[in-house]
Write a structure and sequence with these properties.
Length: 203
């Protein structure tokens, strides 16, 4: 008798990260939900490698590289995670990673809201405020408003930021996983489905 349930891969993920990286195949036809799922999957894959390394230095690097992404999900939890990584009491790696993982799982438990994405993108704009003309800033803000109202998807703004990163050689932003959360070949450019997904995020 064949029973319904998680397959071997799904079960292995559930055992390590309950209810965090599993999604129904049918639901994943929605571009926004699929992008959310892929982002969580690759962040957790990266995190697992950090945890297995038992390297405090690697954990600090993980938090730094993912700072914008974590901010998009929950800025308060991101800051708490930063304080844990700072480790002022010089706790052991196992103690630090245990506290950090609990907050990471909680942070990834809900999708990032579109308003949080706008906050992150405004933060990113600050890195170029001395370089951009008033017209360029106005154009960026207009594009951000189009995203806010649902006229364009998030990746359009991200691509615009990537151009600025290359143009002004902004190393810190170049390293941020927020702008490349998973391999580009997995990215969906189905704009119709992306727009239809706005209601999933607008909470």
């Amino acid at each position: 008798m064949i029973e319904k349930g998680a397959g071997l891969f799904g079960k292995s993920i559930l055992d390590k990260y309950p209810n965090i990286a599993i999604e129904n195949e049918g639901v994943l036809t929605n571009s926004r939900i699929r992008e959310q799922w892929l982002t969580k999957l690759f962040v957790l894959r990266f995190y697992r490698a950090i945890k297995d390394s038992e390297s405090y230095k690697n954990l600090v690097n993980f938090h730094s590289i993912n700072q914008f992404l974590l901010m998009a999900y929950n800025q308060n939890l991101m800051r708490r995670m930063g304080r844990i990584v700072a480790n002022p009491k010089k706790a052991s790696f196992n103690s630090v990673i245990s506290q950090y993982e609990k907050l990471l799982i909680a942070l990834l438990g809900n999708p990032a809201r579109y308003t949080s994405h706008i906050n992150v993108l405004m933060h990113a704009l600050g890195y170029f405020k001395k370089n951009l003309s008033n017209q360029e800033k106005a154009f960026y803000l207009d594009e951000l408003e189009k995203y806010r109202t649902g006229w364009i998807p998030l990746f359009v703004i991200n691509e615009l930021i990537k151009v600025l990163i290359l143009r002004y050689d902004e190393d810190y932003l170049r390293e941020q996983s927020y702008f490349n959360p998973y391999p580009s070949e997995l990215m969906s450019f189905d704009i119709k489905n992306t727009w239809r997904g706005r209601s999933y995020w607008k909470k």
